[in-house]
Amino acid sequence: MPPSEHELRLRQRLSRLRNMPLLGGAKLSGELDRLQRQLDRMGEEATDEEIWQSVELARHEQRPYTLDYVERILDDWFELHGDRGRADDGAMIAGLGKLDGRTVALVGQQKGRDIQERADRRFGMPNPEGYAKAMRVMELAERHGFPVVSLVDTPGAYPGVSAEQHGQGGTIAASQAVMARLTVPTVACVIGEGGSGGAIAIALADRVLMQENAIYSVISPEGCAMILWRDAGEAKKAAAAFKPDAAHCLELGVIDAIVPEPQGGAHTDHDAAARLLGEALREAIDDLADIPGDELRRRRRAKFRSLGVFA
Amino acid sequence: MAKIDVSVETDDKPAPPPKHPNTCPSCHSHYRDDELEAALWVCRQCGYHFVMRSRQRIDSLADPGSFVEEAADLHSEDPLHFFDLRPYTERLAEAEMSTGLADAMVIGQAAIDGRGCELAVMDFAFMGGSMGSVVGEKVSRACDSAAERGVPLIAITSSGGARMQEGILALMQLPKTVAAVEDLRDAGQAMISVMAHPTTGGVLASFATLGDVLLAEPGALMSFAGPRVVQQLTREKLPDDFGLAEQNYRFGNLDAIVPRPELRPALARLLRLFDAPV
Fold first, then answer.
1. Which of A69, A190, A301, B100 fits as disulfide partner to A214, beta carbons 3.0 to 4.6 Å?
2. In this predicted structure, what is the pLDDT of residue B76?
3. How many CB pairs under 8 A join A and B?
Protein backbone atom coordinates (compact mmCIF):
# COMPACT_ATOMS: atom_id res chain seq x y z
CA MET A 1 0.00 0.00 0.00
CA PRO A 2 1.51 3.40 -0.94
CA PRO A 3 2.29 5.63 2.05
CA SER A 4 -0.27 8.28 1.22
CA GLU A 5 -3.13 5.79 1.26
CA HIS A 6 -1.79 4.29 4.45
CA GLU A 7 -1.73 7.69 6.08
CA LEU A 8 -5.26 8.35 5.00
CA ARG A 9 -6.51 5.18 6.64
CA LEU A 10 -4.58 5.94 9.79
CA ARG A 11 -6.05 9.41 9.94
CA GLN A 12 -9.54 8.00 9.48
CA ARG A 13 -8.97 5.58 12.30
CA LEU A 14 -7.60 8.27 14.55
CA SER A 15 -10.51 10.56 13.85
CA ARG A 16 -12.84 7.75 14.82
CA LEU A 17 -10.91 7.33 18.04
CA ARG A 18 -11.04 11.07 18.66
CA ASN A 19 -14.81 10.88 18.51
CA MET A 20 -14.99 8.11 21.04
CA PRO A 21 -16.58 9.47 24.21
CA LEU A 22 -14.35 7.34 26.43
CA LEU A 23 -11.27 9.24 25.42
CA GLY A 24 -12.54 12.54 26.73
CA GLY A 25 -10.61 14.13 29.58
CA ALA A 26 -7.84 16.47 30.47
CA LYS A 27 -5.00 14.70 28.77
CA LEU A 28 -6.80 13.91 25.58
CA SER A 29 -4.06 15.25 23.35
CA GLY A 30 -1.43 13.20 25.14
CA GLU A 31 -3.54 10.09 24.70
CA LEU A 32 -3.93 10.79 21.03
CA ASP A 33 -0.22 11.34 20.56
CA ARG A 34 0.40 8.03 22.18
CA LEU A 35 -2.27 6.39 20.07
CA GLN A 36 -0.77 7.95 16.99
CA ARG A 37 2.59 6.40 17.81
CA GLN A 38 0.98 3.07 18.54
CA LEU A 39 -1.04 3.12 15.37
CA ASP A 40 2.07 4.14 13.44
CA ARG A 41 3.70 1.05 14.78
CA MET A 42 0.74 -1.22 14.27
CA GLY A 43 -0.30 0.28 10.98
CA GLU A 44 -3.17 -1.77 9.75
CA GLU A 45 -5.84 -3.80 11.49
CA ALA A 46 -4.23 -6.73 13.29
CA THR A 47 -4.13 -9.83 11.15
CA ASP A 48 -5.17 -13.27 12.42
CA GLU A 49 -1.49 -14.08 12.76
CA GLU A 50 -0.83 -10.96 14.84
CA ILE A 51 -3.79 -11.70 17.09
CA TRP A 52 -2.39 -15.15 17.77
CA GLN A 53 1.00 -13.62 18.45
CA SER A 54 -0.64 -11.48 21.15
CA VAL A 55 -2.15 -14.62 22.68
CA GLU A 56 1.29 -16.21 22.79
CA LEU A 57 3.03 -13.12 24.15
CA ALA A 58 0.32 -12.57 26.76
CA ARG A 59 1.03 -16.08 28.04
CA HIS A 60 4.80 -15.98 27.58
CA GLU A 61 6.40 -17.69 30.55
CA GLN A 62 8.99 -14.95 30.92
CA ARG A 63 6.38 -12.19 30.85
CA PRO A 64 6.46 -9.96 33.95
CA TYR A 65 3.77 -10.84 36.49
CA THR A 66 2.06 -8.62 39.04
CA LEU A 67 4.81 -8.84 41.69
CA ASP A 68 7.50 -8.12 39.07
CA TYR A 69 5.77 -4.81 38.43
CA VAL A 70 5.07 -4.16 42.10
CA GLU A 71 8.76 -4.32 43.00
CA ARG A 72 9.70 -2.02 40.13
CA ILE A 73 6.88 0.51 40.33
CA LEU A 74 5.93 0.83 44.01
CA ASP A 75 7.99 1.98 46.99
CA ASP A 76 7.39 0.81 50.56
CA TRP A 77 5.35 -2.17 49.32
CA PHE A 78 3.54 -3.95 52.13
CA GLU A 79 1.64 -7.06 51.10
CA LEU A 80 -1.64 -7.75 52.88
CA HIS A 81 -2.78 -11.33 53.28
CA GLY A 82 -5.97 -13.22 53.83
CA ASP A 83 -9.71 -12.73 53.40
CA ARG A 84 -10.34 -12.60 57.19
CA GLY A 85 -12.53 -15.66 57.04
CA ARG A 86 -11.23 -18.69 55.30
CA ALA A 87 -7.91 -18.41 53.53
CA ASP A 88 -5.09 -16.49 51.95
CA ASP A 89 -5.28 -17.07 48.21
CA GLY A 90 -1.88 -16.89 46.54
CA ALA A 91 -3.48 -16.38 43.13
CA MET A 92 -4.49 -12.89 44.23
CA ILE A 93 -2.04 -10.28 45.49
CA ALA A 94 -3.15 -7.32 47.57
CA GLY A 95 -1.23 -4.66 49.40
CA LEU A 96 -0.26 -1.04 49.88
CA GLY A 97 2.60 0.88 48.35
CA LYS A 98 3.72 4.31 47.24
CA LEU A 99 3.37 5.34 43.64
CA ASP A 100 5.32 8.58 43.24
CA GLY A 101 4.92 9.40 46.91
CA ARG A 102 1.18 8.68 46.95
CA THR A 103 -0.16 5.66 48.85
CA VAL A 104 -2.17 3.33 46.63
CA ALA A 105 -3.81 -0.02 47.19
CA LEU A 106 -2.90 -2.63 44.61
CA VAL A 107 -4.71 -5.85 43.80
CA GLY A 108 -3.87 -8.29 41.04
CA GLN A 109 -3.69 -11.91 40.07
CA GLN A 110 -0.30 -13.59 40.35
CA LYS A 111 0.97 -16.48 38.26
CA GLY A 112 3.91 -18.58 39.34
CA ARG A 113 7.40 -18.81 37.87
CA ASP A 114 8.39 -22.36 38.77
CA ILE A 115 6.33 -25.52 39.05
CA GLN A 116 5.86 -25.26 42.80
CA GLU A 117 4.85 -21.62 42.71
CA ARG A 118 2.53 -22.20 39.76
CA ALA A 119 0.73 -24.90 41.68
CA ASP A 120 0.59 -22.79 44.83
CA ARG A 121 -0.84 -19.84 42.95
CA ARG A 122 -3.03 -22.02 40.74
CA PHE A 123 -1.65 -20.37 37.58
CA GLY A 124 -3.20 -17.06 38.62
CA MET A 125 -6.74 -18.43 38.88
CA PRO A 126 -8.25 -17.07 42.11
CA ASN A 127 -10.71 -18.81 44.37
CA PRO A 128 -13.57 -16.81 45.91
CA GLU A 129 -11.23 -16.25 48.86
CA GLY A 130 -8.88 -14.36 46.53
CA TYR A 131 -11.64 -12.04 45.37
CA ALA A 132 -12.73 -11.61 48.99
CA LYS A 133 -9.18 -10.50 49.83
CA ALA A 134 -9.22 -8.02 46.93
CA MET A 135 -12.60 -6.65 48.06
CA ARG A 136 -11.38 -6.26 51.62
CA VAL A 137 -8.36 -4.26 50.50
CA MET A 138 -10.39 -2.12 48.08
CA GLU A 139 -12.73 -1.25 50.93
CA LEU A 140 -9.72 -0.41 53.07
CA ALA A 141 -8.56 1.92 50.29
CA GLU A 142 -11.99 3.56 50.22
CA ARG A 143 -11.89 4.22 53.96
CA HIS A 144 -8.51 5.93 53.69
CA GLY A 145 -8.90 7.64 50.32
CA PHE A 146 -6.19 5.61 48.57
CA PRO A 147 -6.48 5.18 44.80
CA VAL A 148 -6.88 1.54 43.72
CA VAL A 149 -4.64 0.01 41.06
CA SER A 150 -5.52 -3.42 39.77
CA LEU A 151 -3.31 -5.53 37.55
CA VAL A 152 -5.25 -8.18 35.66
CA ASP A 153 -3.48 -11.37 34.66
CA THR A 154 -5.56 -14.53 34.82
CA PRO A 155 -6.73 -17.30 32.52
CA GLY A 156 -9.97 -17.07 34.53
CA ALA A 157 -11.40 -17.67 37.98
CA TYR A 158 -10.50 -21.12 39.33
CA PRO A 159 -12.99 -23.79 38.31
CA GLY A 160 -13.02 -26.05 41.36
CA VAL A 161 -15.50 -27.89 43.53
CA SER A 162 -14.83 -25.83 46.63
CA ALA A 163 -14.67 -22.62 44.58
CA GLU A 164 -18.24 -23.31 43.46
CA GLN A 165 -19.34 -24.27 46.95
CA HIS A 166 -17.93 -21.02 48.28
CA GLY A 167 -19.81 -18.99 45.69
CA GLN A 168 -17.35 -18.20 42.90
CA GLY A 169 -20.03 -16.57 40.70
CA GLY A 170 -21.56 -14.51 43.48
CA THR A 171 -18.16 -13.38 44.70
CA ILE A 172 -17.14 -12.17 41.23
CA ALA A 173 -20.38 -10.19 41.08
CA ALA A 174 -19.81 -8.80 44.57
CA SER A 175 -16.28 -7.71 43.70
CA GLN A 176 -17.55 -5.77 40.68
CA ALA A 177 -20.23 -4.23 42.90
CA VAL A 178 -17.58 -3.08 45.38
CA MET A 179 -15.70 -1.41 42.52
CA ALA A 180 -18.92 0.22 41.29
CA ARG A 181 -19.36 1.79 44.74
CA LEU A 182 -15.83 3.14 45.32
CA THR A 183 -15.36 6.89 45.41
CA VAL A 184 -11.56 6.74 45.14
CA PRO A 185 -9.82 6.82 41.73
CA THR A 186 -9.42 3.36 40.21
CA VAL A 187 -7.15 2.23 37.39
CA ALA A 188 -7.03 -1.29 35.99
CA CYS A 189 -4.48 -2.61 33.54
CA VAL A 190 -4.59 -5.96 31.78
CA ILE A 191 -0.94 -7.03 31.87
CA GLY A 192 -1.24 -10.52 30.39
CA GLU A 193 -4.38 -12.60 30.15
CA GLY A 194 -7.66 -10.87 30.91
CA GLY A 195 -9.69 -14.03 31.16
CA SER A 196 -13.42 -13.59 31.43
CA GLY A 197 -15.26 -13.17 34.75
CA GLY A 198 -12.09 -13.82 36.69
CA ALA A 199 -10.61 -10.70 35.10
CA ILE A 200 -13.58 -8.33 35.15
CA ALA A 201 -14.02 -9.00 38.87
CA ILE A 202 -11.19 -6.52 39.48
CA ALA A 203 -11.47 -4.40 36.33
CA LEU A 204 -14.56 -2.22 36.82
CA ALA A 205 -12.33 0.84 37.00
CA ASP A 206 -12.40 4.53 36.05
CA ARG A 207 -9.59 3.92 33.59
CA VAL A 208 -9.02 0.55 31.99
CA LEU A 209 -5.65 0.12 30.29
CA MET A 210 -4.20 -2.78 28.42
CA GLN A 211 -0.63 -3.57 27.59
CA GLU A 212 0.15 -3.78 23.90
CA ASN A 213 0.46 -7.57 23.84
CA ALA A 214 -2.13 -8.42 26.49
CA ILE A 215 -5.40 -10.13 25.64
CA TYR A 216 -8.85 -9.50 27.10
CA SER A 217 -11.63 -11.90 26.32
CA VAL A 218 -14.94 -13.44 27.27
CA ILE A 219 -13.53 -16.96 27.04
CA SER A 220 -10.17 -18.56 26.31
CA PRO A 221 -9.43 -19.29 22.65
CA GLU A 222 -9.33 -23.01 23.51
CA GLY A 223 -12.65 -22.89 25.37
CA CYS A 224 -14.34 -21.04 22.52
CA ALA A 225 -12.90 -23.45 19.95
CA MET A 226 -14.12 -26.40 21.99
CA ILE A 227 -17.68 -25.13 22.10
CA LEU A 228 -18.15 -23.59 18.69
CA TRP A 229 -15.77 -25.72 16.61
CA ARG A 230 -15.97 -28.77 18.88
CA ASP A 231 -12.19 -28.87 18.74
CA ALA A 232 -9.77 -27.10 21.08
CA GLY A 233 -7.17 -27.31 18.27
CA GLU A 234 -9.05 -24.54 16.45
CA ALA A 235 -8.00 -22.00 19.09
CA LYS A 236 -6.28 -19.83 16.50
CA LYS A 237 -9.46 -19.56 14.48
CA ALA A 238 -11.46 -18.80 17.61
CA ALA A 239 -9.05 -16.02 18.63
CA ALA A 240 -9.26 -14.52 15.15
CA ALA A 241 -13.05 -14.57 15.43
CA PHE A 242 -13.43 -12.95 18.86
CA LYS A 243 -10.42 -10.63 18.60
CA PRO A 244 -9.00 -10.40 22.15
CA ASP A 245 -6.09 -8.10 21.19
CA ALA A 246 -5.61 -4.60 22.59
CA ALA A 247 -6.26 -2.73 19.34
CA HIS A 248 -9.69 -4.32 18.93
CA CYS A 249 -10.58 -3.74 22.59
CA LEU A 250 -9.68 -0.08 22.12
CA GLU A 251 -11.79 0.21 19.00
CA LEU A 252 -14.78 -1.32 20.78
CA GLY A 253 -14.45 1.22 23.61
CA VAL A 254 -13.75 -1.51 26.17
CA ILE A 255 -10.40 -0.03 27.20
CA ASP A 256 -9.29 3.59 27.41
CA ALA A 257 -5.69 3.31 26.26
CA ILE A 258 -2.97 0.89 25.27
CA VAL A 259 0.23 0.80 27.34
CA PRO A 260 3.25 0.28 25.08
CA GLU A 261 5.71 -2.55 25.73
CA PRO A 262 9.40 -2.73 24.88
CA GLN A 263 10.17 -3.86 21.33
CA GLY A 264 9.56 -7.61 21.14
CA GLY A 265 7.26 -7.73 24.15
CA ALA A 266 7.33 -7.11 27.91
CA HIS A 267 9.29 -10.31 28.59
CA THR A 268 12.35 -8.97 26.77
CA ASP A 269 12.94 -6.19 29.30
CA HIS A 270 11.06 -6.21 32.60
CA ASP A 271 12.53 -2.89 33.72
CA ALA A 272 11.50 -1.08 30.56
CA ALA A 273 8.03 -2.65 30.66
CA ALA A 274 7.63 -1.53 34.27
CA ARG A 275 8.73 2.03 33.42
CA LEU A 276 6.12 2.26 30.69
CA LEU A 277 3.39 0.76 32.88
CA GLY A 278 4.32 2.98 35.83
CA GLU A 279 4.09 6.07 33.64
CA ALA A 280 0.66 5.09 32.38
CA LEU A 281 -0.66 4.37 35.89
CA ARG A 282 0.67 7.67 37.23
CA GLU A 283 -0.82 9.60 34.35
CA ALA A 284 -4.21 7.95 34.80
CA ILE A 285 -4.30 8.58 38.56
CA ASP A 286 -3.21 12.20 38.05
CA ASP A 287 -6.08 12.66 35.61
CA LEU A 288 -8.58 11.34 38.12
CA ALA A 289 -7.18 12.82 41.33
CA ASP A 290 -9.11 16.09 41.22
CA ILE A 291 -12.51 14.68 40.33
CA PRO A 292 -14.89 14.54 43.32
CA GLY A 293 -15.60 10.97 44.49
CA ASP A 294 -19.29 10.83 43.76
CA GLU A 295 -18.68 12.26 40.31
CA LEU A 296 -16.00 9.61 39.70
CA ARG A 297 -18.45 6.92 40.68
CA ARG A 298 -21.23 8.38 38.54
CA ARG A 299 -18.98 8.56 35.49
CA ARG A 300 -17.59 5.06 36.11
CA ARG A 301 -21.04 3.52 36.23
CA ALA A 302 -22.22 5.53 33.24
CA LYS A 303 -19.20 4.40 31.23
CA PHE A 304 -19.80 0.71 31.85
CA ARG A 305 -23.55 1.09 31.38
CA SER A 306 -22.88 2.50 27.91
CA LEU A 307 -20.98 -0.58 26.68
CA GLY A 308 -22.69 -2.76 24.11
CA VAL A 309 -23.79 -2.70 20.50
CA PHE A 310 -27.44 -3.13 19.61
CA ALA A 311 -30.11 -1.70 17.35
CA MET B 1 -32.37 -34.85 40.29
CA ALA B 2 -31.99 -32.58 37.29
CA LYS B 3 -29.51 -33.58 34.66
CA ILE B 4 -27.22 -30.77 33.69
CA ASP B 5 -27.80 -29.94 30.10
CA VAL B 6 -25.72 -27.09 28.83
CA SER B 7 -23.29 -24.35 29.68
CA VAL B 8 -22.49 -21.90 26.96
CA GLU B 9 -19.53 -20.24 28.55
CA THR B 10 -17.68 -23.41 29.40
CA ASP B 11 -16.62 -26.17 27.10
CA ASP B 12 -19.41 -28.49 28.16
CA LYS B 13 -21.06 -30.36 25.37
CA PRO B 14 -24.81 -30.40 25.79
CA ALA B 15 -26.13 -33.70 27.08
CA PRO B 16 -28.11 -35.64 24.48
CA PRO B 17 -31.58 -34.14 24.37
CA PRO B 18 -34.47 -36.17 25.77
CA LYS B 19 -36.36 -38.17 23.19
CA HIS B 20 -39.27 -35.78 23.36
CA PRO B 21 -39.41 -32.32 24.93
CA ASN B 22 -42.38 -33.41 27.02
CA THR B 23 -40.55 -36.42 28.44
CA CYS B 24 -39.15 -35.87 31.92
CA PRO B 25 -35.36 -36.25 31.71
CA SER B 26 -35.31 -37.39 35.32
CA CYS B 27 -38.03 -40.07 35.58
CA HIS B 28 -39.06 -40.44 31.91
CA SER B 29 -42.73 -39.70 32.55
CA HIS B 30 -44.38 -38.35 29.44
CA TYR B 31 -46.95 -35.56 29.31
CA ARG B 32 -49.27 -33.90 26.83
CA ASP B 33 -48.70 -30.18 26.23
CA ASP B 34 -51.81 -29.16 28.16
CA GLU B 35 -50.85 -31.37 31.12
CA LEU B 36 -47.42 -29.79 31.37
CA GLU B 37 -48.82 -26.30 30.97
CA ALA B 38 -51.38 -26.89 33.72
CA ALA B 39 -48.59 -28.13 36.01
CA LEU B 40 -46.34 -25.10 35.23
CA TRP B 41 -43.91 -27.45 33.48
CA VAL B 42 -43.16 -29.39 36.64
CA CYS B 43 -43.14 -33.20 36.50
CA ARG B 44 -46.01 -34.52 38.63
CA GLN B 45 -44.15 -37.75 39.28
CA CYS B 46 -40.73 -36.55 40.45
CA GLY B 47 -40.94 -32.76 40.70
CA TYR B 48 -38.42 -32.13 37.90
CA HIS B 49 -38.66 -28.52 36.72
CA PHE B 50 -38.66 -28.30 32.93
CA VAL B 51 -37.11 -25.16 31.45
CA MET B 52 -39.91 -22.62 31.21
CA ARG B 53 -40.29 -20.11 28.37
CA SER B 54 -40.30 -16.41 29.24
CA ARG B 55 -43.88 -15.68 28.12
CA GLN B 56 -45.22 -18.61 30.08
CA ARG B 57 -43.26 -17.50 33.10
CA ILE B 58 -44.69 -14.01 32.90
CA ASP B 59 -48.22 -15.41 32.48
CA SER B 60 -47.71 -17.59 35.54
CA LEU B 61 -46.56 -14.69 37.74
CA ALA B 62 -48.11 -11.40 36.63
CA ASP B 63 -51.70 -10.42 37.41
CA PRO B 64 -53.80 -10.92 34.26
CA GLY B 65 -53.43 -8.00 31.88
CA SER B 66 -50.86 -6.21 34.06
CA PHE B 67 -47.74 -6.90 32.00
CA VAL B 68 -46.54 -4.08 29.77
CA GLU B 69 -43.45 -5.06 27.84
CA GLU B 70 -40.58 -2.59 27.46
CA ALA B 71 -37.74 -2.37 24.94
CA ALA B 72 -39.18 -5.26 22.93
CA ASP B 73 -37.60 -4.05 19.71
CA LEU B 74 -33.94 -4.18 20.79
CA HIS B 75 -31.93 -6.41 18.47
CA SER B 76 -28.38 -7.68 18.59
CA GLU B 77 -25.82 -6.36 16.18
CA ASP B 78 -22.78 -8.23 15.02
CA PRO B 79 -19.88 -5.92 15.96
CA LEU B 80 -17.19 -8.56 15.39
CA HIS B 81 -18.68 -10.00 12.19
CA PHE B 82 -18.39 -13.21 14.12
CA PHE B 83 -18.20 -16.40 12.12
CA ASP B 84 -17.58 -19.83 13.56
CA LEU B 85 -19.11 -22.71 11.68
CA ARG B 86 -21.95 -20.34 10.81
CA PRO B 87 -22.30 -16.55 10.92
CA TYR B 88 -23.64 -15.07 14.15
CA THR B 89 -26.28 -13.17 12.19
CA GLU B 90 -27.63 -16.48 10.91
CA ARG B 91 -27.77 -17.94 14.42
CA LEU B 92 -29.61 -14.82 15.59
CA ALA B 93 -32.14 -14.99 12.79
CA GLU B 94 -32.75 -18.65 13.46
CA ALA B 95 -33.24 -18.07 17.18
CA GLU B 96 -35.64 -15.24 16.46
CA MET B 97 -37.63 -17.46 14.11
CA SER B 98 -37.82 -20.38 16.49
CA THR B 99 -38.59 -18.41 19.66
CA GLY B 100 -40.55 -15.41 18.39
CA LEU B 101 -38.31 -13.25 20.56
CA ALA B 102 -35.79 -10.57 19.59
CA ASP B 103 -33.28 -11.79 22.18
CA ALA B 104 -32.90 -13.90 25.32
CA MET B 105 -34.66 -11.55 27.75
CA VAL B 106 -38.11 -9.99 28.13
CA ILE B 107 -38.60 -7.00 30.43
CA GLY B 108 -41.63 -5.00 31.43
CA GLN B 109 -43.88 -3.52 34.08
CA ALA B 110 -46.14 -5.90 35.96
CA ALA B 111 -48.17 -6.40 39.09
CA ILE B 112 -48.16 -9.47 41.33
CA ASP B 113 -51.10 -9.77 43.65
CA GLY B 114 -51.86 -6.10 43.14
CA ARG B 115 -48.35 -4.82 43.86
CA GLY B 116 -46.28 -3.20 41.17
CA CYS B 117 -42.91 -4.56 40.11
CA GLU B 118 -40.57 -4.68 37.16
CA LEU B 119 -40.02 -8.11 35.63
CA ALA B 120 -36.83 -9.15 33.78
CA VAL B 121 -37.22 -12.69 32.53
CA MET B 122 -34.64 -14.67 30.58
CA ASP B 123 -35.46 -17.24 27.91
CA PHE B 124 -33.11 -20.20 27.62
CA ALA B 125 -34.58 -21.14 24.24
CA PHE B 126 -32.91 -18.10 22.64
CA MET B 127 -29.28 -19.14 22.12
CA GLY B 128 -29.04 -20.82 25.51
CA GLY B 129 -30.13 -17.65 27.28
CA SER B 130 -26.70 -16.23 26.56
CA MET B 131 -26.04 -12.64 27.60
CA GLY B 132 -24.91 -10.25 24.91
CA SER B 133 -25.44 -6.52 24.44
CA VAL B 134 -29.23 -6.75 24.24
CA VAL B 135 -29.64 -8.75 27.45
CA GLY B 136 -27.27 -6.34 29.21
CA GLU B 137 -29.14 -3.31 27.93
CA LYS B 138 -32.48 -4.78 28.97
CA VAL B 139 -31.23 -5.43 32.51
CA SER B 140 -29.97 -1.87 32.56
CA ARG B 141 -33.32 -0.46 31.38
CA ALA B 142 -35.28 -2.69 33.75
CA CYS B 143 -33.26 -1.24 36.66
CA ASP B 144 -34.03 2.30 35.51
CA SER B 145 -37.71 1.54 34.97
CA ALA B 146 -38.00 0.04 38.47
CA ALA B 147 -36.17 3.03 39.99
CA GLU B 148 -38.31 5.56 38.14
CA ARG B 149 -41.56 3.91 39.16
CA GLY B 150 -40.39 3.16 42.69
CA VAL B 151 -41.02 -0.57 42.47
CA PRO B 152 -38.82 -3.62 43.12
CA LEU B 153 -37.09 -5.49 40.29
CA ILE B 154 -37.70 -9.22 39.97
CA ALA B 155 -35.12 -10.93 37.76
CA ILE B 156 -35.70 -14.50 36.63
CA THR B 157 -32.58 -15.95 35.06
CA SER B 158 -31.87 -18.95 32.87
CA SER B 159 -28.62 -18.68 31.00
CA GLY B 160 -25.53 -20.56 29.91
CA GLY B 161 -23.45 -17.41 30.43
CA ALA B 162 -21.99 -14.69 28.26
CA ARG B 163 -22.58 -14.83 24.48
CA MET B 164 -19.24 -15.73 22.92
CA GLN B 165 -20.24 -14.38 19.52
CA GLU B 166 -20.13 -10.85 20.91
CA GLY B 167 -16.61 -11.33 22.24
CA ILE B 168 -15.30 -8.88 24.80
CA LEU B 169 -18.49 -6.81 24.59
CA ALA B 170 -20.36 -9.80 26.01
CA LEU B 171 -17.96 -9.81 28.98
CA MET B 172 -18.64 -6.09 29.41
CA GLN B 173 -22.30 -6.88 30.06
CA LEU B 174 -21.21 -8.18 33.47
CA PRO B 175 -19.96 -4.80 34.78
CA LYS B 176 -22.76 -3.07 32.89
CA THR B 177 -25.50 -4.98 34.69
CA VAL B 178 -23.65 -4.72 38.01
CA ALA B 179 -23.45 -0.92 37.61
CA ALA B 180 -27.16 -0.79 36.75
CA VAL B 181 -28.11 -2.81 39.85
CA GLU B 182 -25.95 -0.52 41.99
CA ASP B 183 -27.81 2.50 40.61
CA LEU B 184 -31.11 0.76 41.44
CA ARG B 185 -29.83 0.13 44.94
CA ASP B 186 -28.90 3.78 45.37
CA ALA B 187 -32.41 4.68 44.28
CA GLY B 188 -33.62 2.68 47.27
CA GLN B 189 -35.34 -0.12 45.39
CA ALA B 190 -35.15 -3.83 46.14
CA MET B 191 -34.12 -6.53 43.72
CA ILE B 192 -35.34 -10.10 44.02
CA SER B 193 -33.46 -12.68 42.02
CA VAL B 194 -34.95 -16.02 40.99
CA MET B 195 -32.42 -18.39 39.47
CA ALA B 196 -33.94 -21.04 37.25
CA HIS B 197 -32.10 -23.90 35.58
CA PRO B 198 -29.46 -23.17 34.45
CA THR B 199 -28.01 -19.91 35.76
CA THR B 200 -24.31 -20.20 35.05
CA GLY B 201 -21.21 -18.30 33.94
CA GLY B 202 -21.48 -14.59 33.34
CA VAL B 203 -25.09 -14.20 34.45
CA LEU B 204 -24.38 -15.91 37.77
CA ALA B 205 -21.26 -13.73 38.10
CA SER B 206 -23.15 -10.47 37.59
CA PHE B 207 -26.67 -9.20 38.25
CA ALA B 208 -28.27 -12.56 39.14
CA THR B 209 -26.42 -12.90 42.44
CA LEU B 210 -26.80 -9.24 43.42
CA GLY B 211 -30.43 -9.43 44.49
CA ASP B 212 -31.40 -8.38 48.01
CA VAL B 213 -33.08 -11.77 48.17
CA LEU B 214 -31.75 -14.76 46.23
CA LEU B 215 -34.16 -17.55 45.32
CA ALA B 216 -33.67 -20.58 43.10
CA GLU B 217 -35.81 -23.30 41.61
CA PRO B 218 -35.24 -26.89 42.71
CA GLY B 219 -32.51 -28.64 40.76
CA ALA B 220 -31.28 -25.46 39.05
CA LEU B 221 -27.62 -25.60 38.06
CA MET B 222 -25.95 -22.52 39.47
CA SER B 223 -22.25 -22.90 38.82
CA PHE B 224 -19.75 -20.39 37.51
CA ALA B 225 -17.79 -23.07 35.66
CA GLY B 226 -19.47 -26.07 34.09
CA PRO B 227 -19.15 -29.51 35.72
CA ARG B 228 -17.10 -30.89 32.85
CA VAL B 229 -14.58 -28.05 32.99
CA VAL B 230 -14.16 -28.53 36.72
CA GLN B 231 -13.71 -32.25 36.33
CA GLN B 232 -11.23 -31.95 33.47
CA LEU B 233 -9.12 -29.31 35.15
CA THR B 234 -9.06 -30.53 38.71
CA ARG B 235 -9.62 -34.28 38.24
CA GLU B 236 -11.68 -34.02 41.41
CA LYS B 237 -14.63 -36.30 41.83
CA LEU B 238 -17.65 -34.08 41.64
CA PRO B 239 -20.32 -34.39 44.32
CA ASP B 240 -23.70 -35.54 42.97
CA ASP B 241 -25.24 -32.16 43.67
CA PHE B 242 -22.31 -30.19 42.18
CA GLY B 243 -23.36 -26.60 41.52
CA LEU B 244 -27.05 -27.29 42.03
CA ALA B 245 -29.40 -25.00 43.94
CA GLU B 246 -29.49 -27.56 46.77
CA GLN B 247 -25.72 -27.44 47.21
CA ASN B 248 -25.69 -23.66 46.98
CA TYR B 249 -28.39 -23.50 49.64
CA ARG B 250 -26.42 -25.79 51.93
CA PHE B 251 -23.33 -23.58 51.56
CA GLY B 252 -25.24 -20.39 52.30
CA ASN B 253 -25.29 -18.96 48.79
CA LEU B 254 -29.10 -18.77 48.61
CA ASP B 255 -31.99 -17.54 50.75
CA ALA B 256 -34.49 -20.17 49.66
CA ILE B 257 -35.30 -22.83 47.10
CA VAL B 258 -38.84 -22.25 45.92
CA PRO B 259 -40.73 -24.87 43.88
CA ARG B 260 -42.40 -23.30 40.87
CA PRO B 261 -46.02 -23.59 42.07
CA GLU B 262 -45.05 -21.65 45.20
CA LEU B 263 -43.13 -18.91 43.39
CA ARG B 264 -45.99 -16.48 42.82
CA PRO B 265 -47.14 -16.46 46.47
CA ALA B 266 -43.51 -16.18 47.63
CA LEU B 267 -42.89 -13.18 45.40
CA ALA B 268 -46.18 -11.60 46.48
CA ARG B 269 -45.11 -11.96 50.12
CA LEU B 270 -41.71 -10.40 49.41
CA LEU B 271 -43.31 -7.50 47.52
CA ARG B 272 -45.53 -6.86 50.57
CA LEU B 273 -42.48 -6.95 52.83
CA PHE B 274 -40.49 -4.54 50.67
CA ASP B 275 -43.43 -2.20 50.17
CA ALA B 276 -42.46 1.00 51.94
CA PRO B 277 -44.97 2.11 54.59
CA VAL B 278 -47.33 4.75 53.22
1. A190
2. 93
3. 215
